[in-house]
Amino acid sequence: MIIFVHHSCWGNKLCVKKGEKMEIIRIESAENPYFKKVWEVYGYSFPLYEQRTLEHQLTAFKSNIYHMDAYFDGERLLGFIAYWVFPAYVYIEHYAMALEERGKGHGTRILTAFLEQMAGRIVVLEIDPVVDEVSTHRLSFYQRLGFLESPFRHQCPSYQPDAVEGELWVLTYPTTVDCDFYDRFYRDLQTVVMAR
Description:
Aminopeptidase, 8-stranded mixed beta sheet, 5 helices, 30% helix
């Protein structure tokens, strides 16, 4: 599998399956012509307390360890991954597929390719508690890709001033993590990811 991530709006392809190509476009600012499409998917894919304000998103773009990669088939946005590359791990802050692209296997192919790209690193993400069919399906999706449930849960500090905080479960790939690792992750979440 060949992966090219680029910083402009032109050219490189991600080969995710023989004969199938997706373009990865690195979104580095709100001025990127594709940002509006990604921001729309972002807006309907996460509860309000998990959504950055536009101002907070602009702050994230200023960090050299933050990346937002959008996956396209032609002009059709399939989905995106927004993530932070820390020295000891990679944190997927937001991962979502466009509504009309869900259930077509794109999410599995994109996240599998992403995990291969991050080979040798621990990858961390959070999910909402498993309380219904949708959240059960979400956990199963990540487990099929090799993510493991950790014993760690926390209240997600709200990105929005008036939104209620929600509990999140921590999943890790390809291995479980200990308390020291979790403490470092949670500290990074509070001081770097949530920085305004």
